[in-house]
Amino acid sequence: MRKINRFLSLRFNTKKVLLRFFILILLITNFDVVEGQNKGNVLFIIVDDLQPMISSYGAEFVSTPNMDSLSKESIQFNSAFCTYPLCSPSRASVLTGKRFRFQNHTNDEEGPSTPSINEVIRENKSLGELFKKNGYFTAALGKVYHGHVPEPDVPYWDLIYDSDSKKRSMEEWSTMTKENRGGRSDHIWKIGNKLKPAGALVWGHLDVKDDYFSDGEAANKACEIISSHKKKDPLFLTLGFRRPHLPLFAPSKYFDQLSDENYPVFASHDRSLRPFDITPKNKGLWNEGMSDKESQEVIKAYNACVSYVDNLIGKVIDELKKAGMYDNTTIILWGDNGFHLSDHGLFRKNTPWQVSNRVPLMIHSSAQKTKGEYNGVVEAVDIYPTLVDLLDLKTDMKKTEFDGKSLVPIIQGNLEKDHKEFAMITAKTRIGIVDRKHYFLLDSVSAEIELYDRMEDPSQLKNLADSSLYDDTKNDYINKVKAAWENVPWRFSKQ
Ligand SMILES: [Ca+2]
Predict the structure, then answer these.
(1) How far is the CA of 277 from the centre of ligand 1 (A)?
(2) Has residue 490 been placed in a domain?
(3) Burial label, 478 (beta-carbon count in 10 A; 0-12, 13-18, 19+)
C-alpha cells in the first residue's frame, strides 16, 4: 500500500513538475496574449508631412502653443530622421520597426522599388499586433497607415476609425472657397474635378468648425475613447492627422490668427541652383511656377494647417488630463516626413535633403528623469524598440532583430552621449547617412556625392564634395554608407 501511495505520490509530483515545466515553457516561448496588465497608456500622434514647423523647434511664423507645452514636458529630439520621405514607406517603417528595404532596381529615375505594405505587415509584427498581444485596447484613428489599415493588420485593431468627410468635402471646398483660396492656378481650377486632391498645391479656408474636416472628427473620437475609458485595459491610441499634407485647407480662424506680413521664401534666390525633379509634372519649375508672393501664401496656409492640428492636439491632451490619465500616458508626437516650403525652389517632399528627411519627434513619458532636448541623431525606427523597452512589452523579437535602438537611456536623462553613430537616409536613387556634423549622400546610379556641414549650412546650399579638401571625408563616408546599407543595387559599380 505504502509502495502504491509512494508511486501515486511520485506520479502526482511528476505531473506537477511537468505542469510547472510546461507553464514555464509557455511563459518563455509564447507571448501571444498577455491579459490585464496596465503598464500605462500610449497616445501616438502622427502628423502628415510635418517638418519641424513648431515654435519649440525655433520656427518663427507659426502658432503652436500646445505642441510647445508638450515639448516642455517631453524630450524633444532635434535631429530625428524618417526612413523614407513619403507617407507610405515612412509609416510602414515606424509601424513595424523595420527600416526601408530595397527589393530590386526597376526604375533608375524613381529609384529602387519596395515591397507592398501587405507583404511588409505579413512579414513583421506591427505596433497594433504588439500592443494587442500585450492586452491593450488598440485604436487607429484618422490617417495611421497610408490609406486604409492593411488587411493583414486589421485583426489587431479593436477600433479603426477614419471618416469619409475628406472625400465628401472636396467638391464642397472648391465651391465654398471662391475668394479664400490660392496656390498653383491650374490646380485650383482642377480641384474637385480631375486632379487628385491630395496632390493639389492649393490652399483655402472655410468658415467652418474644427470637426468639419476629418482631422477634427478623429480628435473628437480620441476624446470620446479617453473620456469613456474603463481603466481595465490600457490604451494604445494612434491618432493620425492629415494636415499639413496638401491640399492646405483649414478653418478660417487659423488663417486669421497668423500675420500676413513677412513670410519668408526660404530658398536662396540663387536660381542657378537646380530644382530637384520631384515629379515629372513639376520638372524644371522653380517653386512650381509660383511667384514669391504666391509661395508665401502657400507657406502661410501650411502654417495655418499646423496651427489647426496644434489646437486638436491640445484638445486631446486636455482630455487626458481631465480623465486623470496624463501622467500614466506615454505621448509620442511624430511627423512622418519633412516638407519643402520653397527651400531649394521646391514644394512637397521625396527629395534627399534634410528638409525632406528631418522630422519632429517628442516623447513624453513617466520614465522621464529630466525634460529637455536631444541633439544627437535618432531614427523613426527607434520608436518601436523604445515602446517595447519603456512599457516592458512582451515580444518574441530579440533585441538584435530590431532595426532601431531604444531611446529609453535618453528619456532617462542621458542627453549628451551619442545614441548612434549615424542615421540612415534615402530618397529615390540617393542613399546616405547623417551624423551630428555631416549629411552625406551617394547616388546609387550616377555615383554623384553630396556632403553638407549640418552646423554651418543647415539649408544645404553648399556641397562640400565639390572641394578636394574633403576627399578623405568623402571616402570615409562612402565606406560607411556601403557598409550600413545592405542590398543596395549600386549601379555605378557595374558601369
Ligand atoms: Ca506624409
Answers:
(1) 18
(2) no
(3) middle
Say whether pTM exceeds 0.85.
Answer: yes
CA 350–ligand 1 middle distance (angstroms) = 10
Does 177 reside within a domain? yes
In tens, the pLDDT along 438-485 reads 999 999 999 999 999 999 999 998 999 999 999 999 999 999 999 998
Ligand 1 centre to CA of 349 (Å) is 8
Residue 488 in domain: no
Tell me which residue of 375, 290, 307, 350 sits closest to 88, measured CA to CA: 350
Q: The domain that contains 75 carries what CATH number?
A: 3.40.720.10
pLDDT band at 266 (very low <50, low <70, confident <90, very high): confident
Q: Coil, strand, or helix at residue 200?
A: coil
The structural domain count of the chain equals 1
Enclosing domain of residue 379: 38-428
Residue 479: how many other CB atoms lie within 10 Å: 10
Task: Give yes or no for a contact between 386 and 420, defined as CB atoms under 8 angstroms apart.
Answer: no
| H-assigned helices in 403-470 | 408-411
